[in-house]
Inverse folding.
């Protein structure tokens, strides 16, 4: 048990410390909004694509590709979204449309690029290639779901523009990194040492820079009548969804790394990308922003408990 506890702390504690360092640095004035904006852009446009490319470039895709797992990932990402949306619509139908969109987005859309991928690389190491395969499925679905939510429930009732949506998916840096990594692997390309080391160095920036920016961006907007909606959605995101997801996958016969990937993807804090989209077209920014703050704090405990449990029963080796 002590070994499992030490393993869990070694995985989660650096994430907490780096996020706390970002929070303290922002409050002390060591970093500002410009740093946070620029840092997030570096992570999203350079570090994450490099990490995904690296995970696939030297991987035998024949071994990493698992049609059954990919099918489950796609199905569950859609199914869980629909279930949460129906629940929110029935429970909050008398509320402002912006509250519903923020509630559903905060209950479902995890920070895949900034947190799930770095955490899974820390846990699985070289065996995390399947994470990139899952990302290329989940990221487009997340984007489509968020835009549908905002079109249906935002205060401005904007229409979906399919062309712009597809272009945005095609230009998504994590997807580009994944596709390039798969292409390089399938083509058997061997990169020069200089290029390989440069990409590895960029990939190494992912976790520390992403977490410092995440911590620096954390704010608490005070207690409001809508605080309970932010709390409810946060508990669904970091406690209920990962447990139900891994239980469903286990019942369907998935084991080992597959369960770990599913647990982390669905157990990480809510993605900031959804908040940005809410701001742009009139969603409820109080519920969305408070949800991100709560999921970030709560996930330190829930992910620790889940990783410890997975290690104790032998799912994580």
């Amino acid at each position: 048990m002590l070994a499992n506890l030490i393993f869990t702390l070694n995985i989660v504690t650096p994430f907490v410390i780096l996020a706390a360092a970002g929070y303290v640095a922002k409050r002390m004035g060591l970093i500002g909004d410009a740093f946070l904006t620029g840092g997030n852009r570096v992570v999203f446009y350079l570090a994450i694509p490099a990490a995904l490319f690296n995970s696939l470039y030297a991987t035998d895709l024949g071994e990493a590709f698992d049609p059954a797992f990919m099918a489950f990932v796609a199905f569950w990402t859609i199914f869980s979204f629909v279930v949460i949306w129906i629940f929110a619509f029935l429970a909050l139908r008398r509320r402002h449309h912006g509250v519903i969109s923020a509630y559903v987005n905060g209950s479902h859309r995890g920070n895949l690029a900034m947190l799930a991928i770095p955490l899974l690389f820390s846990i699985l190491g070289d065996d995390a290639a399947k994470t990139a395969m899952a990302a290329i499925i989940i990221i487009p679905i997340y984007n489509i779901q968020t835009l549908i939510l905002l079109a249906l429930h935002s205060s401005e009732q904007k229409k979906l523009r399919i062309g712009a949506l597809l272009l945005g998916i095609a230009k998504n840096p994590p997807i580009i990194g994944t596709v390039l990594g798969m292409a390089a692997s399938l083509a058997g390309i061997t990169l020069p040492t200089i290029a390989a080391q440069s990409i590895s160095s960029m990939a190494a920036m992912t976790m520390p820079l992403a977490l410092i920016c995440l911590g620096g961006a954390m704010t608490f907007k005070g207690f409001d009548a809508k605080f309970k909606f932010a709390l409810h959605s946060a508990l669904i995101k970091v406690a209920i969804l990962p447990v139900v997801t891994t239980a469903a996958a286990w019942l369907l016969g998935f084991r080992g790394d597959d369960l770990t990937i599913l647990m982390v993807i669905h157990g990480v804090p809510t993605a900031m990308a959804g908040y940005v989209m809410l701001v742009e077209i009139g969603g409820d920014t109080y519920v969305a922003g408070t949800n991100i703050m709560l999921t970030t704090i709560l996930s330190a405990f829930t992910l620790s408990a889940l990783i410890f449990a997975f290690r104790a029963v032998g799912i994580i080796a």
The mean pLDDT is 83.
